[in-house]
Amino acid sequence: MIYRDHFQNYKSYAIPKAQLIIADIPYNLGNNAYASNPAWYKDGDNSNGESALAGKSFFDTDEDFRPAEFMHFCSTMLKAEKKPLKVEGEARQKGDAPCMIIFCAFDQQMYLIELAKRYGLNNYINLVFRKNFSAQVLKANMKVVGNCEYGLILYRDRLPKFRNNGKMIFNCMDWPRDNDSEKIHPTQKPVELLKTLISIFTDEGDVVIDPCAGSGSTIVAAERLNRKGYGFEIKKEFYTKANQWIMEEKQVKIDIEKYGFDKSRMEKQSGMTLFS
Ligand SMILES: C[S@@+](CC[C@H](N)C(=O)[O-])C[C@H]1O[C@@H](n2cnc3c(N)ncnc32)[C@H](O)[C@@H]1O
Questions:
Q1: What is the pTM of this model?
Q2: How far is the CA of 171 from the centre of ligand 1 (A)?
C-alpha cells in the first residue's frame, strides 16, 4: 500500500507499526536541515531565538527534507521492543526487536547516527554496498572512483530480529544490478537487494514501511516476500507509477493462486489476451 502524502501525515492512516523501516532519504538535504531540531534555536530553546544553524543546510542543496521529522516518524512507527521471555532450562530465546535501515550519503552517516540517538535509536551498524560499476566516469583513468553506496542499520537497545540461516552476514554487501524492473525513479534501489535486507530482518507477515518510497521498490520487495509493505511518496509521477507496480505485483499473486501462472503479466508483455 502506498499513500500519496508526506510521511509526516501518517496519523491519517491506520498503518500498523513496523518490524522494519527501510528508507532512502534524499541525499541533498536543504536549508531546513535543522527543522524540528532543537539546534535550530540557541541552547535548544525557542525563546532564545534562532541559532547559527537555523535555516542552514548540511550539504549544498536546498531540498525541503526534514531529517528530525523523519527520525521522529521512524521511532514512533517502529514496533516496541519486548523483553524475550526467559524459560528455565531452555536456550535463550531469539529476540524479535525491530530496526530501520537508511540508505544515505557517506557524509550523512555521523549526523544520522547522532540524530537517531535523540530518538532512542541508540545503536547502529554501518553498511557498505559494493557495485561492480561506477557512475563517476569523469577522469576515471586519473583518480580512484567511487563504486559504493552506504547505509545504516539503526536500532534501540536490543539486537534486531536476525534471520541468517546460521550464516555470518558481512556489513559489506554486493549491490546487484536490477535489469528486470521498470526504471521509475532516478535513485531506484534494486529489488533483489531490498529482498535480501527484508529477509534478514523480518519474517513472513511482518510489516515493512518505506516513508520515502519513490518507485515503490521496497513495497514490491516486501510483497514478493509475503511481508506487508506500506509507503509514502509525495511526487505525483513517482506515486502513480509506484502504485501501478505494486498493484501489478498483487495481481501476480492473485493470478498464480487462480491460474497457476502470472496471467496478467504475460498478457501485458505479449499484448495478447490469453483467456477471460
Ligand atoms: C531517494 S528517493 C527514494 C527512492 C526509492 N528508494 C526507490 O527505490 O525508488 C526519496 C523520495 O522521497 C520522496 N520524499 C521526500 N520527502 C518526502 C516526504 N516528506 N514524504 C514522503 N516522500 C518524500 C521524494 O519525492 C523521493 O521520491
A1: 0.84
A2: 24
3-state secondary structure of 149: strand
Residue listed under C-alpha cell 505494486: 246
Q: What is the total count of domains within the chain?
A: 1
Q: What is the whole-number distance in angstroms between the Cα of residue 34 and the centre of ligand 1?
A: 19
238 lines ligand 1 (CB under 6 A): yes
3 state DSSP class of 90? coil
Give the relative orientation of helices 217-224 and 236-259 as an angle to the nearest 10 degrees: 10
Write out pLDDT tens, residues 12-65: 999 999 999 999 988 764 455 454 455 656 776 667 777 766 665 543 333 688
**pLDDT tens for each residue of 243-272:** 999 999 999 888 888 788 877 777 777 877
Considering the domain boundaries, does residue 11 fall inside one? yes
| CATH code of 222's domain | 3.40.50.150
Per the listing, cell 496519523 goes with 11
Q: 240 is written with which cell numbers?
A: 502513480
Nearest atom in ligand 1 to 215's CA: 9
> What domain range is 173 assigned to?
2-26+65-80+94-270
- Please give the torsion angle defined by the CA atoms of residues 169, 174, 178 and 183, in that order, rounded to the nearest 10 degrees: 100
